[in-house]
Amino acid sequence: MKIRQVFYTLLMIFAVVAMNACACHKKPVPPPPGYGPESGQNGFSNQSGGNVGDRWKRLGITTEAQKREFLDSAAAFENQDVYFDYNSYTLSEPAKKLLDDKIAFLHKYPSVSVTIQGNCDERGTEEYNLALGQKRAEAAKDYIMHSGGGNFHLNTVSYGKERPVATGHDEAAWAKNRRDHFALKY
Amino acid sequence: MFRLRRGLLILCCWLLFWGGAGFAKALAQTIYLDINNANFQKIPIAVPDFKYMSSDQSELSRKMADLLRNDLNISGVFRCLDPKGFLQDPQKMSMEASQINFQAWKQLGADFLVGASFQVQGNTLRLDGRLFDATGARLVGSPKSYGGDVGAWRQMVHAFANDILLMVTGQAGVFNTKIAYTQKVGGAKEIFECDFDGSDPVQLTHDNSIDLSPVWSPDGRRIAYVSYRDGSPKIYVLNVATRATRLLCGYPGMDITPAWRPGGGELAVALSKGESQDLYLVNSSGGIIRKLNVGFGSSISVSPNWSPDGSKLAYVSNESGGPQIYILDLSSGQKRRLTYSGKYNTSPAWSPKGDWIAYCAQGGGSFNIYVIRPDGSDNHALTHGGRNEAPRWSPDGRMIVYSGDYAIRIMDANGTGNWRLMRNSGGGQGLPDWSPRLNGN
């Protein structure tokens, strides 16, 4: 029991230190730690240990222009969320079109890994929304796997209604929160 | 606080023991009122400030009496009279039935009268309490006595409140129980516990993450809960005494909504398990005993909650569109839909006697607590308007705790009475769960 306690304490200290290290690098207001993998841009700038040149080569990038192109499309990949109707995890036609763009990106850079984060608006109850968010993340994952046909690195996580991007209490805010967000790691 | 309680030795002893005949007489004077009757009226009771036998302890006297009044008011059985109307100086009140002017208490409207005195010696406290029947002008049951550290005065008053309820209704109260809940702490959500009346809130986890869905084990020593501390939602078990936590379910995907099976080490959980999301039965190490196969197509199955005999599960499924409550019979594998009114019904909670299922229903822009019989009859609302979610029963089935507009509230199981716990906490609370009766208090 003691050993386990010490282990968890060390683990938590390590986690906190690691999170702080991430947070001070980038955003002025970091999300609370434990909220899953950071966005790709963060992940990228954090890779201070490895050989940066190798990392680019693995993505098929050899020139500064290619690098700029990658970063631009990676930003677009992460910034374009897929939205859902209330209480639904069915992909709309615009959602599928957006996912087709993401598939094109993944074909071009198949070594990146993607975490699909399912989210809900504030109206539902907490536990049901966790399950609903998971279904939303899986809907996008299924579509990418089936339509994309590639062997992509895709993870899912549901945040339920725990992580709203818009804090209002009207349909405009709710619509923004019923979303899949995509985080890249490369 | 915990160490304090551990150190506390509460003595609940029969002070007056008049031999066999006297014992029978004492039993005969116990009054069991049928408080489950629909026409039950709350019993008016007078609780004067406690009498102090040592140096001036007027502050503690008032605090103890206030706590007892609060317990009795919350119980749903009693209605405490306003002590401002009491004519007699409590410090001069006699503890002997023969010397109490019951007629005066009756005129104030009291059916029952509490007489309590205490002594502080050094760091120890001794509390003596008696319950009198004002109509019969007699002692009810036997005198009670409690002892321990001064700092544990709350536990002693709660124990006295339990005994008062036991003497009047035949069933002890739940005044020594706890409520676990989630509380926002900065940008994180942690698991907390408080006494059933909201006092003494304690932060149990320091995951610095999103923690959700705390549920007490049947023995009250552990709390299973969901945490994002490793990035995605997994189920952990917290030892309440040591605060040590261990991973219970770390399957790929989403592991949520644990529910301990009554009387056993098993839990029902909702796992996404690589997209075959369903309810699963797991053992106390998190190993899968079996998939319960309640899902249909790509439906959601979540929030399992056991019948008190552990034979059935109420749960939420959206297989017919929006979320509705279903019941699964584990031995036959048969499932049936329970709720048909409204389009959004979640968070089922089976009452300890098995006679009701409380749940949360959305309608007209608000969320309310409803109860329904397990056969689908008698469906009705207990709250009316606002945002009321996540109901759970007290272990005696007399009260329901829930989250009302992001604050923990408790109400009588019939919907009357309604208290917000931790009034000054600023909210940010949710997903309460009521502990079983805890030993050692």
Ordered list of secondary-structure elements with their pairings:
The complex is a heterodimer of chains A (186) and B (441).
Chain A: H1 2-25, H2 40-46, H3 52-58, H4 64-79, E1 82-83, H5 93-108, E2 113-119, H6 126-148, E3 153-160, H7 171-177, E4 179-185
Parallel strand pairs in A: 2-3
Antiparallel strand pairs in A: 1-4, 2-4
Chain B: H1 2-7, H2 19-28, E1 43-46, E2 51-52, H3 58-74, E3 78-80, H4 102-107, E4 112-121, E5 124-133, E6 138-149, H5 153-169, E7 178-185, E8 188-195, E9 202-203, E10 211-216, E11 222-227, E12 234-239, E13 245-249, E14 255-260, E15 267-271, E16 278-282, E17 288-291, E18 301-306, E19 312-317, E20 324-329, E21 335-337, E22 344-350, E23 357-363, E24 366-372, E25 380-381, E26 388-393, E27 399-404, E28 407-412, E29 418-420, E30 429-434
Parallel strand pairs in B: 1-3, 1-4, 2-4
Antiparallel strand pairs in B: 4-5, 5-6, 7-8, 7-30, 8-9, 10-11, 11-12, 12-13, 14-15, 15-16, 16-17, 18-19, 19-20, 20-21, 22-23, 23-24, 24-25, 26-27, 27-28, 28-29
Helix pairs in contact in B: 3-5
Written description of the protein model:
The complex is a heterodimer of chains A (186) and B (441). With 186 residues, chain A is α+β, with helices and mostly antiparallel strands. Chain A has two domains: 1-34; 38-185, OmpA-like domain (60s Ribosomal Protein L30, Chain: A). Chain A has helices spanning 2-25, 40-46, 52-58, 64-79, 93-108, 126-148, 171-177; strands spanning 82-83, 113-119, 153-160, 179-185. By secondary structure, chain B is mostly beta strands. Chain B has two domains: 2-169, TolB, N-terminal domain (Rossmann fold, 3-Layer(aba) Sandwich), CATH 3.40.50; 178-434, Neuraminidase. Chain B has helices spanning 2-7, 19-28, 58-74, 102-107, 153-169; strands spanning 43-46, 51-52, 78-80, 112-121, 124-133, 138-149, 178-185, 188-195, 202-203, 211-216, 222-227, 234-239, 245-249, 255-260, 267-271, 278-282, 288-291, 301-306, 312-317, 324-329, 335-337, 344-350, 357-363, 366-372, 380-381, 388-393, 399-404, 407-412, 418-420, 429-434. The A-B interface holds A 1, 4-5, 8, 12, 15-16, 19, 31-37, 87, 89, 123-128, 130-132, 134-135, 138, 142, 156-159, 162 and B 186-189, 206-210, 212-213, 226-233, 242, 244-246, 253-254, 256-257, 270, 272, 275, 277, 298, 300-303, 316, 322-323, 344, 346-347, 360, 362, 367, 389-390, 430-431.
